[in-house]
Amino acid sequence: MHKLSVSQLVDGLRNGDFSSVELTQCFVNRMQKFNDLNAFITELGERAILQATNADKLIKEKKHRPLTGIPIAHKDIFCMYGVKTSCGSKMLDNFYAPYDATVVEKLDQAGCVTIGRTNMDEFAMGSSNESSYYGPVKNPWNTDCVPGGSSGGSAAAVAARIAPLATGTDTGGSIRQPAALCGVTGLKPTYGRVSRYGLIAYASSLDQGGPFGKSAEDCAYMLQAMAGFDEKDSTSLDKAVPDYTQLLNSTLKGKVIGVPEEYFSEGLSAEVKSVIEGAIKWYEQQGCEIKNISLPNTNLAIPAYYVIAPAECSSNLSRLDGVRYGYRCEDPKDLRDLYDRSRSEAFGDEVKRRIMIGTYALSAGYYDAYYLKAQQIRRLISEDFKKAFEHVDVILGPTTPEPAFKIGEKTADPVTMYLSDIYTISINLAGLPAMSVPCGFSDSLPVGMQLIGNYFEEDNLLNFAHQYQMDTDWHKKTPEGFE
Amino acid sequence: MPITPEEVLKIANLARLQIKQDEVEQYAIDLSSIINLVEQMNAVDTKDIQPMAHPLDATQRLREDKVTENNQRDKFQAVAPSAEKGLYLVPKVIE
């Protein structure tokens, strides 16, 4: 059952081939069997079986919703009522959320059964899952390697077929980069498409939740349940949600694909490059027109991001002070000592670095030189994409410069780690939707291609990805030992 | 512009973080290398470019000034490290 697509699972449940309890038990068993991957922070097996029992009842009474009885895993960043919501940090190790995130609520309403809470980089700050308080997640394709981050637990869980679907969040590549490194499909929607309410904020002007699945089709079903306006999120956009499965089977003939030269320059591994070129060739054979384009400000994305994201995080994380929730140090001697020690004892190194960079960038006298400048660069990057989309339907390139790297390989120098997000960060700065789709292997590790779309054209991206997956089987490959 | 160990302590103070004496040097190195990366922005002239805060230039939505939330104090204080009679407890601030 763990190999079936979401639509096959839905059919199987409704035809009575298997019950949701059986299905859920299958995934819960896998979650326990493969717990060496460290993909989960909290397992919710018992709770899931109760949910599944209820789902079976609804199916029997024909009161089912689109995803009734389908198991899912949630990244530990989405608040879930009464369930530990740690965000990968010691700071929130004792935090049981007093309410549901909108994404959790919507997926619950669609009928999903939550099997567990996935591991992640602390407060979503990282590209390897090594900054988690709960230890690194292992990549199912090679357990010496990282799964990527920050949504590494979700990507690893889907890759190891522990969950058919999982939620993630993407601030600078945190859905697409781990999807690429784990050989699964992941989508970051347009900024404002999916509610951020109850998603523990890292960089509010960039954060966006999205789906992980085995295929584009599975992601389409999940995004359908996640997307939509939410008045509880002040940056949510009030725009009708299309049927994301409707365009899946449209022809790609005559569509124009832009290939940015900046995404194929030095730094890109030769093997990854040739795998991506193979995917481009496939689209060409389908009758797509391939157009070389330029996104000239690409090299400024990482510098601008490392002002904007830390500045916003230093502000967002100031609420964590040991007073209202989260970790509190022992025997504080006064209020100042309570703040200082609670924060210092509970935040990890990467979080502290980013808080400090942000504090520095926003401190008196530096605002214009850093934050304002970065916002201006953000405009330039966004204009690059705007110009490109006057001539192309979609932009295609690699998701990452290289496949999964070894655990510990990039932890010595934070800047080396930052460079692994070189192709994903500018998309967050521009607020565009993008996805990562498995398209081959390099050194027995999966490679992902990135498809970038214009604002609100998630359906178009899913069409490009689905057509590719109908004719290739990269997305169906399962790591050895997890078949 | 490199960040000096003195600046590390100053920033840590603003951010309400304590950095151990033997870690200050490493923070100075790491933060300097990040700032060095960030300053690549200076290669571009951004005069007259409108800063971008929201990708679709959306502005803050306004709503009627009406109470929409119930009081959920007990629920929220259940997760507090220390609360009593509806109040959050902290070390004594005023003598």
Please specify the SSE layout and strand pairing:
The complex is a heterodimer of chains A (483) and B (95).
Chain A lengths: L5 H9 L5 H14 L6 E4 L1 H16 L10 E5 L26 H8 L3 E6 L33 H8 L5 E5 L6 H7 L2 E4 L20 E5 L2 H11 L29 E5 L9 H16 L3 E5 L7 H16 L18 H12 L2 H14 L5 H21 L5 E5 L15 H5 L6 H6 L3 E9 L2 E8 L5 H14 L12
Parallel strand pairs in A: 2-3, 7-8, 7-9
Antiparallel strand pairs in A: 1-3, 4-6, 5-6, 5-10, 9-11, 10-11
Helix pairs in contact in A: 2-3, 5-6, 7-15, 9-11, 9-12
Chain B lengths: L4 H10 L9 H15 L34 H5 L5 E2 L2 E2 L7
Antiparallel strand pairs in B: 1-2
Can you offer a commentary on this structure?
The complex is a heterodimer of chains A (483) and B (95). By secondary structure, chain A is α/β, with parallel strands linked by helices. Chain A has a domain at 6-254 and 451-476: Amidase signature (AS) domain (Amidase signature (AS) enzymes, Alpha-Beta Complex). Helices cover 37% and strands 13% of the residues of chain A. Chain A has 15 helices and eleven strands. Chain A has helices at 6-14, 20-33, 45-60, 102-109, 152-159, 176-182, 216-226, 270-285, 301-316, 335-346, 349-362, 368-388, 414-418, 425-430, 458-471; strands spanning 40-43, 71-75, 113-118, 165-169, 185-188, 209-213, 256-260, 289-293, 394-398, 434-442, 445-452. In chain A, helix 2 (20-33) runs antiparallel to helix 3 (45-60) and helix 7 (216-226) runs antiparallel to helix 15 (458-471). Chain B has a domain at 5-42: Histone, subunit A. Chain B has helices spanning 5-14, 24-38, 73-77, and strands spanning 83-84, 87-88. Chain B has a two-stranded antiparallel sheet. The radius of gyration of chain B is 22 Å and the shape is flat. The mean pLDDT of chain B is 93.
